[in-house]
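Per reviewer request, we include the raw input and output of the structure prediction for the construct analysed in the revised manuscript.
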Amino acid sequence: MTLADARTLPAVRIDDASLESLTRELAEHAPAHDRDASFPWEGIRAVHAAGILTAPLTDPLSAADASRVFQALGAGDPAVALISAMTVLQHEHQRADPTWPEAARDALLAASLDGPALVNAVRAEPELGAPARGGVPLTTAERTATGWRVTGRKAFATGSEGLALHVVWVVTDEPSPRVGSILVPGDAAGVSIVRTWDHLGLRASSTHDVVYDGVEVPEESFLPERASQNVPVAGIAPVVVPSIYLGVARAALADFARFAQERVPTSLGRPIATLERIQTVAGEAAAQIAQADAVIARAALAIDAGEPVPDLGLVKTLASRASIAAVEGLVAAIGNPGLTRGQPLERHLRDVLCSRPHPPQDDAAILTAGRALLAP
């Protein structure tokens, strides 16, 4: 992967005007993809054209810029934002700690020259659940004369239908089994998608199951456990996911304001935006959004300064709680319209609730913080 090759990738365009335009473009298609849970290719192509998917290869994002970018994507379509985040974080991981064989890197780069080439770590399993809780995968990599044969089933593979490359968590069948990840091209024989994702929110994220039925890959495709982590511990990772859901909260507040300005009950004779009750609700949501923004910005500032991130495990928990509270309050304030299909607030509420399952989940983050505080 040479610098000359990287220069042929789309230029990174993340100035305020470009991000505002990208948010609008994603938002245009988001309702339709939410309704039928179809893959949001229009949005993914737009993110790629803005140079964001391959930014770590051309013009790496600072943590502060990563937060701006993923807030903008989350405000437009959080499903697109999450699929994009997985690819960006895999490229960021390889930039910080290169572990992939050259052939795999070059193939993904070549595909990225022609359009979006998505990649994600595929780790969860129906029996195991979330890998962050511990355990060993049931998906196996069996030695063959020319490499490995991958067999198993994975769950919650975000972007599944569009992935050019799967980074699959496996255990080898060697006399001394090793746990690691193995690189599997998305179009390899034996890879199939099972459309299991029928979720409350992020319905267009294509977070389906994937079956690997004796998939043959080369010897060098196996990555030892050190190299198989989903995202780097440091870098932009801690701010990306909470920023997506902060973007959802910002979109919800904008749609609430629009509704309040347009809603004129005959009994009132003026927009409900003129009522102190509605103004207070909007102000409370703005305060919660500011809280989430401050938590993420504090972490981004430390990351960009090369300093330890204060309360790293709590960044996602605190920001997500504030984002959820903001949207819940806005929905509650307008009654039935807030829960009506076709109204954007209903979709924003479903989407923002999806922040909870992302690691670290609240109980794990709080337990870690408590143990650290009370350690002798």
